[in-house]
Amino acid sequence: MQSQRNTLEIYIDRLAGDGAYPVTVRVLETNQSARSSMVLALSSVELADAQRWLAEGDADMPAVQDFGARLFDALFVGPVRLLYDQLVGDPDRSPAFWLLVGDPGLAQIPWELLYDSRRQSFLALVAPFVRGLAIENPARSQPVDAGPLRVLVASAFPAGLENLEANDEAQRIASALRQTPDGVQITELAHATLSRLQNALREAELGNTPYHVLHLIAHGYADSATDASAVILEDEHGEADVVQPATFAALLSGLGIQLVFLNACSSASMPASNLAPGFAQALLGVGIPILVGMQAPVSASDAMLFTAELYGSLADGRSVDGALLDVRRVAQQRSADGRTAPAIPVCYTRNMPARLVDAPASKPAAPAPVPVQPAAPSTPTTTGKRGLRRLWGLAAATVALVVGIISGYVSMRDFFCVPPVRGGLPTILGGVCDAIAPQEEPVVVVAPTATPQPRLTGDFKIAVAEFAPVDGASDAGAKGSELAQQLYDQLRDDLDAMASAASVPFSIDMGLAPQEVGRIEGNSYQAQVDNAVRRAREINADLLIFGNLDVSPDKT
Questions:
Q1: How many CB atoms sit inside 10 A of residue 42's CB?
Q2: Rounded to whole angstroms, how far apart are CA atoms 433 and 450?
Q3: Neighbour-count burial of 19, counting CB atoms closer than 10 A to its CB (0-12 exposed, 13-18 middle, 19+ buried)
Q4: pLDDT, tens digit, for every residue of 21-66?
Q5: DSSP for 517-541?
């Protein structure tokens, strides 16, 4: 029988003055270590191609192997390569790989494609390959050794977005986990809103039956301009509620959850700046030991395949890192895109091995099917107004914009006008266009700079003006004030949560309330812009949000 794997921790530090990245590797069990430097010879175009392969599944195997081999040869050099060869040369010491990356830009690379050309194998297909973060006082995952494994399966599919088979996925989880040694309790929460999710988690905690696993089935995305990632829950009207990582993490903090599985597109993608945390930084930062997510868009069939295989392996007592190895091997054989699909699921863990349940002492006999319980009677959802979706899209866009400005990835000088974006789910910058566009006129947005600017210092002051009615419609006045206040409150909450989770401290001042700012009016769009600039100077605001409100019987 093969002995337990060693773990090779690989830490890639930030770029040094000599143009190389310092690399330190360490065998956790024996404390053997080695150091070297990595010079990344891959161009930005090649790195973008690799990310596109994951998103579109259009790569040919020789190209994927060549990319992975060049990445491998850059990382494993000198003493680091010697230690690697020693470990993989002994079958009883074949290591698991735990990658920690100090540079945010490098964290965006699909390291799961590392390819050892001499052994003709992808590292992530021959051994557990997971990621970590350099976090002080890492939380230890506690295997569930008494009582049933409790899993909350939450799903959200707002109006206008594809409705995936959430109930079928919950049944697959139940079937996969039915051989868990001490049993399993699975609760399903449909139409998940932030408040419903919070209530379900808190009620379980107060009842001394906290959930060990949160499995979220939802849509997600990473904005191509800002790298900001988000998942999309529902609001009280059944419309899209874009939830940022910091807000989601604050909801789960201190509830004893051991594993979060975000079965949502791009939920494990990494931002290029440490200022705006992705889900990995946010969740591990509040003490969640293990996160499994997707670093690219994923098909519905692959998502369900990943789910069934992961939980089936966990039920057999495999660690999460070991279970993910099983997932990748099965995906290579059964996915429609076996070339890059195995690299889409990513695990971030605060410790190794990442164990959730203990291995069973013996094979249990024919377990009974596991019932899936609803968290509460599902209430019918109603289609809310499109204006509200635009409002929350604007809130998410503003958060991303502020992050970019403060971190230097967006310059206040780079303003330009574009037509409003129409139709479909907006991107972050598209959300700005769609949310504040007055009819079909152009809107002012900002573009990320090609070269990062210095970070801003001091306070960053944001103001929200009351929305002005279109064509002087008097019945829109009260509604404009109400929606502006809702946007103001949402921004304040999101920015406070983001600031508390960010690794770089900064200060946001929400400035005056909408009623104090007043309306930004004008006989033309340009006149409104001029008046907005003048009002921003009067109240000393760095960013002023204003817009027009069109209220009719069928829309806002």
A1: 14
A2: 21
A3: exposed
A4: 999 999 999 999 999 999 998 888 998 888 888 888 778 889 999 9
A5: H-B---SSHHHHHHHHHHHHHHTT-
DSSP 381: P
On whether the CB atoms of residues 247 and 228 are closer than 8 A, the answer is no
Same domain, 314 and 361: yes
How is residue 448 written in tokens?
A: 């990320």
Distances (CA, A) of 307 to 166, 182, 345, 397, 427: 12, 20, 10, 31, 27
Q: For the chain, how many structural domains are there in total?
A: 3
Sign, CA torsion 51/54/60/61? positive
Residue 536's alpha-carbon distances to 286, 433, 516, in angstroms, are 36, 20, 12
DSSP annotation of 67 reads H
Instruction: Please indicate, yes or no, whether residues 192 and 268 belong to a single structural domain of this protein.
Output: yes
| Residues 165 and 40 reside in one and the same domain | no
Same domain? 71 vs 214: no
Encode pLDDT of 410-463 as tens digits: 443 333 333 333 333 222 333 333 333 333 333 333 333 333 344 444 567 888
Q: Name the 3-class secondary structure at 7.
A: strand
CB atoms under 10 Å from CB of 266, counted, come to 26
Treating both helix axes as pointing N-terminal to C-terminal, what angle do 44-56 and 61-75 enclose, rounded to 10 degrees? 130
pLDDT, one tens digit per residue, over 289-328 is: 999 999 888 888 888 889 999 999 998 889 999 999 999 9
